[in-house]
Amino acid sequence: MNKKHYKKAYKKAIKRFNRKSRNNTNRTLLTVGAIAGGAALATLAVKSSKNNQTYKTAQKQLNLLQCEEYGDREVYFIGGGLASLAGAAYLIRDCHFKGENIHIIEGLHILGGSNDGAGSEADGFVCRGGRMLNEETYENFWELFSSIPSLDMPGMSVTEEILNFDHHHPTHAQARLVDKNGKILDVKSMGFNQADRMALGKLMITPEEKLDDMTIEEWFAHTPHFFETNFWYMWQTTFAFQKWSSLFEFKRYMNRMIFEFSRIETLEGVTRTPYNQYESVILPLKAYLDTHQVDFSINATVTDIEFADGEGITATALYIEDSEGEKVIKLNKGDVCIMTNGSMTDSTTLGDLHTAPEYKPEDPISAKLWKKVASKKPNLGNPSPFFDYPEETNWESFTVTCKGNKLLKLIEQFSGNIPGSGALMTFKDSNWLMSIVVAAQPHFKAQPMDTTIFWGYGLYTDRMGDYVKKTMRECTGEEILIELLHHLHLEDKQEEILETVINVIPCMMPYIVSQFQPRKMTDRPKVVPEGSTNFAMISQFVEIPDDMVFTEEYSVRAARIAVYTLFGVKDKEICPVTPYKKDPKVLKEALKTSYR
Fold first, then answer.
1. CA–CA distance, 68 with 508 (Å, rounded to integer)
2. How far is CA 21 from the centre of its chain?
3. Among candidates 304, 273, 280, 282, which has minimal Cα distance to 366?
């Protein structure tokens, strides 16, 4: 059967399918584009189950035709985090690239990057962090996952599953800030004075090119009161900013999340996943890629990338170390290399109930490769501002696993929030600036009904505790929990609570907020650098105008830009950043909030 015949068969299948679906409440979206080489392709995306055999056969045949357009081209993703997995999904879904010709190479023993979640009833559970989702701003994330099937809800996409869960578990924090006396503070007022408002307003209208290397503290130097406001404590701990963080990133967050400004005290904008992000986001995406025979290599470290001589950026070889030793993969004409240039969870270490995690910031695996690559060609960025200052970029999280719900019940009584409804609770006078989050239970699929968990973190790991006279990074899991119990004023119940504890797993992350470091505009490379023919970079350390780092959306958007650019995708659009900063209603609410 030739291409012309396939086209006719496919068009007939679409007509039959649409006739059958016309009275169905599930709407059918049909988009028409062009295949390189001149063959027309119609791509049918439906929320209802695709059970029309003629349609499915014609779709498969046309997909095979487009795969033939790529021949034996190979794509290599360096790093197995969300960005790489998303990039592979875009190649399959939107380019109809052969899955077996897509290779994802990960240096760790597991995929998922910074989206993690693991453990057992016996040893306790751990997640290094909880990556906040947001329904209004994660445009490409929701679009991608609307085409990824849920593992737990038959007939639903991951997007539908997450939003359905979130809408049934709304967030409304009633104890956002707590003082040293255990008093829940009234945070309806942002606490600004006129100088604070003027400085914030001026920042919003200042062009980014005038903010190179500036810190937040430098901008507000004439009004230090800003750092004593309810707003700063809430904004800082929601997004993990420091006073010495980049003014670029602070401004972008204010622009991108301006509608959240008016509800920051309740965190109603936080979108929840049913379980931890590894199980709710990574596993279904991995399952989708498995059905398309994508090739995964774990415990395999890319140590170097070779480029062709002369001008331009053309990757020609990958150098890899794995359990079998060293090997070289030569890239042929048409092959593509997409690299994760830096990971915020590089050099992570774990402790346990009786052991503090080691602090080992040396040799971050992905940054080490980025440094080598950046020295070979122009326009590939500068990792130094992000990975040379671990004392400024670290913080420590901890996950508490208990038998029964004694501690969670006490936290619920204290805060007024049932598990899953309260978001961050920050102890603002804590030397470590400690915060905790109690998710809806269970938060892990393997978590028994009589086991409960919650997560927390501290921003200042080099400071002495208020009650445990050690720095946070020197503390065991038990000592971190004891410090927390004192801030909750539950020290009189300490012994009976500790009897229920299975484990407290602290997690030291030297580079967790490295993407917030002060920088020049040129320090982050473009996703597809100028002069590139087959090379792209995807991470929290690439430059995407107007968008904000430290988000799932940033990883997915970077992957989509890389794939669409390198493969010339013209019939689909990358979802733009929603311009809330230009919405009069949103701006009006923000202005009113600043005067509360």
1. 47
2. 36
3. 304
Q: Is there a contact between 502 and 402 (Cβ–Cβ < 8 Å)?
A: yes
* Tokens linked to 66: 């487009």
Distance from C-alpha of 525 to C-alpha of 329, rounded to nearest angstrom: 24
From edge to edge, which strands make up the β-sheet containing 501-509? 177-178, 424-427, 434-437, 451-458, 395-403, 501-509, 349-350
pLDDT of 50: 45
Closest to 393 in 3D by CA, of 246, 538, 542, 233? 246
Residues 6+ apart with CB under 8 A from 353: 124, 476, 477, 478, 501, 503, 504, 505
483: its two tokens: 């410090």
Cβ 352 vs Cβ 572: under 8 Å: no
Asked if residue 239 lies in contact with residue 267, where contact means CB atoms within 8 angstroms, the answer is no
pLDDT in tens, 163-198: 999 999 999 999 999 999 999 999 999 999 999 999
Contacts of 404 (CB under 8 A, 6+ apart): 450, 451, 452, 500
- pTM of the model as a whole: 0.89
Q: How many residues belong to the chain?
A: 596
For residue range 394-438, what is the model confidence (pLDDT) as tens digits? Answer: 999 999 999 999 999 999 999 999 999 998 999 999 999 999 999
Told to judge if 10 belongs to the known catalytic residues of this protein, a careful annotator would answer no
Alpha helices in 182-282 (DSSP H): 194-205, 216-219, 230-239, 247-256, 277
Read off the tokens for 520: 């020049």
Whether 518 and 45 have beta carbons less than 8 Å apart is answered as: no
Which pair of tokens denotes residue 566? Answer: 């390198």
* Joined tokens for residue 577: 């950043």
- Residue 28 has a pLDDT of 32
Question: Facing residues of 427 across strands?
Answer: 178
Residue 574 near residue 139, CB atoms below 8 Å: no
CA-to-CA separations, 174 to 219, 230, 413, 438, 493, in angstroms, rounded:
31, 14, 11, 13, 23
- Which DSSP string corresponds to 373-386? HHTTSTTS---HHH
- Please give the sequence-ordered ranges of beta strands (E in DSSP) within 47-154, or none if there are none: 75-78, 102-105, 118-120, 124-126
Query: Catalytic pick from 253, 275, 457, 511?
Result: 253
Identity of the residue numbered 527? V
At position 61, the amino acid (one-letter code) is: Q
Element (H, E) at 330: strand 325-330
- Range 276-304 average pLDDT: 97
CB 339 within 8 A of CB 535: yes
